[in-house]
Write a structure and sequence with these properties.
single chain, about 230 residues, mainly alpha, 9 helices, about 80% helix
Length: about 230
């Protein structure tokens, strides 16, 4: 294949990846789609959870559940940092890694500059994921404070407790939104890895990841259970 055709194919693969990520992110956060997604369904459950929490005097169980959720964000933030370090080390020996990779049958050869771009793309994805998970972890701490600040329920402050519960649920929802975006970045990184082998495989992997995300967000069994459409 001529070099010009190879460049055009790589460019098309990169554009398809970028468009898929941006369009999916924009659509999934629009209210019309959010209300029909697993994220919207679970947010309704968070509101109910916080209302139940506000009616209890002992909120130890609620803080333990929140702590378990925040540990997941901390784990993925640490994993992202490790991946960033590994990719940074790989950039210093990119030529050697490229030679080893191109020994695999059917792997498309690419210029050194393009190989570095692929590494930068992968590193950028993990940097983005790190910031998302780190902020989600921090928001979990803020949510713990909000739970601790919930008024003790009495006959005279029912409206105040309900308002505080909905505010707390909204804060947890923001933390979950950042965590979900970070998790999607891991899906995108799996697609980006395919670019090291061949741009056509990169296009196929991006499409495959997009189909998985759409199905799990809008058409999964989990969504039907959480939204009350099951059995």
């Amino acid at each position: 294949m001529p070099d010009l055709d190879a460049f055009a194919l790589d460019l098309a693969a990169g554009l398809w990846f970028a468009l898929s990520v941006v369009i999916f992110h924009q659509l999934v956060n629009r209210k019309v789609f959010l209300d029909r997604s697993i994220a919207g369904a679970i947010q309704a459950q968070r509101v109910q959870w916080m209302r139940n929490m506000a009616d209890r005097e002992n909120r130890l169980v609620d803080t333990q559940v929140l702590q378990a959720l925040s540990h997941g964000n901390a784990f993925f933030a640490s994993t992202s940092a490790i991946a960033i370090g590994g990719l940074a080390a790989l950039m210093g020996s990119g030529d050697t890694a490229q030679v080893l990779l191109e020994r695999i049958p059917y792997v498309a050869k690419s210029p050194s500059a393009l190989f570095e771009i692929k590494l930068v793309l992968l590193a950028t994805i993990f940097v983005f994921a790190f910031f998302k998970f780190a902020w989600a972890f921090r928001l979990s701490h803020y949510t713990g404070i909000m739970i601790g600040a919930t008024p003790i329920p009495t006959a005279s402050n029912a409206d105040e407790c309900d308002l505080h519960a909905r505010r707390t649920a909204a804060l947890i929802g923001i933390a979950a939104e950042h965590a979900n975006t970070g998790l999607r970045s891991y899906y995108y990184s799996a697609a980006a890895l395919a670019w090291f082998f061949h741009p056509l495989l990169f296009i196929a992997a991006t499409t495959w990841v997009l189909i998985i995300l759409v199905r799990r967000e809008f058409f999964s069994r989990s969504y039907r259970i959480i939204s009350g459409q099951w059995p």
